[in-house]
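User: I'm writing a short methods note and want a consistent example. For Aldehyde dehydrogenase, I'll paste the sequence; you return only the structure tokens, no commentary, since I'll be parsing the reply automatically.
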Amino acid sequence: MEKLHHINGQFTRGASTETIAVDNPANGQIIGHVPLGTPEDIDTAVQAAKSAFDAWKRVSASEKAELLHEASRKMRAHAHELIELLTREEGKPLSENEEEVVWTYSTFDYYAELGRHSRGRVLPSTEDGVLNMVIKEPYGVVGCIVPWNYPLLLLAWKVAPALAAGNTVVIKPSEMTPLTALQLCEIAFDHLPPGVVNVVTGDGRTGEALVRHPDVPMIAFTGSLSTGQKIASIAAPMMKKTHFELGGKDAFVIADDADPELAARAVAYAALINAGQVCTSTERVYVPQRLATRFTDQLVDLVKSLRLGDGMDAETDIGPMIGDKYRQKVIDHIADAKAKGARVLTGGRAPDRPGYFHEPTVLVDVNHSMKIMTEETFGPAIPLMTYDSFDEAIRLANDSIYGLGACLYTSDAKKARRFFEDVKAGTIWINDPLTDNYAGPFGGMKYTGGGRELGEEGLDEFRETKHVHWDIEARPKPWWLPYHKEVRP
Ligand code: NAD
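Assistant:
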């Protein structure tokens, strides 16, 4: 399969001469090629988006809403092919990709309606005959840089609100999952005016050209902390608006009143969905001493029963990781933990088979001197640490540079309140880990970056605020110059 950049409504090779090979992480076989976008390709796409912007921002809110609903309808009609391509390109099981595609088209529906209703507000004026308005305006061309772990969902969380706000976009998908982004353009955006949605494929160099482009006033980025820091250092002197959704090291605390069996199921789901490659994956678990044995036994039994395999097989629970570099990090974190005294209760190995599989792994006797408890692992590893008091659990949960999400299992309302007030994270899940809500803002604190996607906040990220103060009567003001009395009118 060969796919080309999508620029100004056309599929084109642009100035690219080199290509990127895309493989299936379940077996390492090449499934497609895309062009390696050059700075010239980025410029062509930005100019197309810039030319389309003036007309797009003037499209009425109700017409824009219908156009976004139409994109959603087309995605729905082609959901099956998107789900299959996602599975072959990214690796997670079909059922998880089905959920990703539902979220993708529903995000377009959600922002179609939010954009229809929201433009700003009118303020109480300072005097009669004066109108004060707060107007929300688009930035212009927004650069959307997307990672590989949820290639369509994270694209939709940027592109849908950006378009609803009246921006045009240039998307740079991950070099590991560009095929689904281009497939989405083929399927869903051909009714939009040319130049409103553009995709330039490529790697970090292509992304950097987008960040550096002087006609791109906003960059919306989801990816690793190190890439986010690089983008921030380029964008800051240009005073660009940046929106960052970076790494995580989410804690899961089990309170001492919890049912260990239910909590073990919740932890297995939160830590192992998408082979642990979710920004909000549970990456560290804190269990009270009192429940440790029962909880650990339950969790180990459950994890042992999970089936590792190709995501195309409906019986698969856990698919491959995206690539060897990412798997090596998991191997390194487990080795570091073992060297410092941790024990592996199940898993712990990369099986000897094609593809980038890693066994789901449970570790105990871990502590915060280990990488597996402090750095983002982004793989199927569950380190369990015991605690003595709820105060200690909260302190441990907060002991991270990241602040994306945090989970708690409890029926004790006092503990729940203490947790959601004192844990520094953008999302707190209590008894229902990793469930999102279209209207619920999603994003992080601390080094995760302060951007918010979804909800009204997710639309506001893509709008600038302007205050209009208008004296409709155009009357002279008593406080104007000159102040000395002889010449005052
Ligand atoms: P990454 O930072 O390597 O790449 C992300 C994107 O940035 C890719 O499209 C890549 O080509 C591009 N890129 C790389 N270097 C660039 C540069 N110098 N300038 C501009 N663009 C550049 O991240 P990844 O490995 O694709 O994704 C995994 C990371 O994403 C994890 O750290 C994960 O936590 C994070 N993530 C965060 C969220 C969130 O909402 N907070 C969601 C999903 C993933």
